[in-house]
Amino acid sequence: MTITIALPSKGRMKEDASAIFERAGMTISAVGNDRSYRGRVEGWDDVEIAFLSASEISREIGNGTVDFGVTGEDLMREGFAEVDKRVEFCARLGFGHADVVVAVPEIWLDVDTMADLVDVAADFRARHGRRLAIATKYWRLTQQFFSSQHGIQLYRIVESLGATEGAPASGSADIIVDITSTGSTLRANHLKVLQDGIILHSQACLVRARKESHTDEPAVQAIIEAVRTAL
Ligand SMILES: Nc1ncnc2c1ncn2[C@@H]1O[C@H](COP(=O)(O)OP(=O)(O)OP(=O)(O)O)[C@@H](O)[C@H]1O
Ligand SMILES: O=P(O)(O)OC[C@H]1O[C@H](OP(=O)(O)OP(=O)(O)O)[C@H](O)[C@@H]1O
């Protein structure tokens, strides 16, 4: 059986992902020229590498089109409901750290916790004639956190595909759910993270699609062990 591992072809995770495999004794070379989107691993004839973007990788693992991939936990959890039934998070790789957080305008002085936000959401329609608007590209994580974990039902998600932190200032939303690493984008936009507003501590992971065919395949376990020893 050929095992396909999807690795980032570009972006912030590319170099670190290749370095981990190198340390794991799995040296990757491109098939054909350097711009090829296929690779192989020296000494692992049954393994092939597919180079894709981090968001494509999460989709392909979730669909089972590839066997393994390196991508952010946030992208996996946002992309699929009940993701742990579809995939196994085999290893956290120690790079690509970012938190998915709830952030509100700094000038909301009385709002520091999710409990405070519950009160704001409940009063919002009476005060403003509309529901609290949340800008995000993480609509699944937002719904799980707001509705299931905190019982907030009265809100509206405004889909944002970029510059989410600018939404409260521009008036397109009241608060945001987005990723932060250094916090500088939030600060620059006068937003603060709620004390218990961290939805997910994300980092790059080695993720495996749960497939029947993996059960009797020694190479599957060998890949997981090789990567774990490199951490
Ligand atoms: N500062 C950061 N900003 C955004 N994402 C970050 C940051 N730090 C780490 N990440 C992680 O990087 C991953 C996204 O990587 P990247 O932007 O390279 O992928 P992509 O979404 O596939 O790219 P593109 O949007 O260009 O197609 C996510 O898992 C995210 O959690
Ligand atoms: O906490 P910080 O270190 O400021 O990082 C957070 C910011 O970085 C990312 O945007 P980026 O400009 O990298 O573009 P992207 O959203 O297209 O990935 C992310 O969407 C945040 O806006």
TrEMBL record:
Q: Which InterPro entries match?
A: ATP_PRibTrfase_cat (IPR013820), ATP_PRibTrfase_CS (IPR018198), ATP_PRibTrfase_HisG (IPR001348), ATP_PRibTrfase_HisG_short (IPR024893)
Pathway-wise, it operates in: Amino-acid biosynthesis; L-histidine biosynthesis; L-histidine from 5-phospho-alpha-D-ribose 1-diphosphate: step 1/9
Q: In the Enzyme Commission scheme, what number(s) does this protein have?
A: 2.4.2.17
Q: What EC class is this?
A: transferase
Q: Which GO terms describe its biological process?
A: L-histidine biosynthetic process
Keywords for the protein's UniProt record, in alphabetical order: Amino-acid biosynthesis, ATP-binding, Cytoplasm, Glycosyltransferase, Histidine biosynthesis, Nucleotide-binding, Transferase
Q: Reaction catalysed by this chain?
A: 1-(5-phospho-beta-D-ribosyl)-ATP + diphosphate = 5-phospho-alpha-D-ribose 1-diphosphate + ATP
Single GO molecular function: ATP phosphoribosyltransferase activity
Any one of the GO CC terms: cytoplasm
Domain ATP phosphoribosyltransferase catalytic, chain residue ranges per copy? 54-228
Primary location group: cytoplasm
List localization entries: Cytoplasm
Q: What does this protein do?
A: Catalyzes the condensation of ATP and 5-phosphoribose 1-diphosphate to form N'-(5'-phosphoribosyl)-ATP (PR-ATP). Has a crucial role in the pathway because the rate of histidine biosynthesis seems to be controlled primarily by regulation of HisG enzymatic activity.
Cite the domain annotation text. Answer: Lacks the C-terminal regulatory region which is replaced by HisZ.
Self-association or partners: how does it assemble? Heteromultimer composed of HisG and HisZ subunits.
- HAMAP family per record: HisG_Short
UniProt family annotation: Belongs to the ATP phosphoribosyltransferase family. Short subfamily.
What name appears for this protein in its UniProt entry?
ATP phosphoribosyltransferase
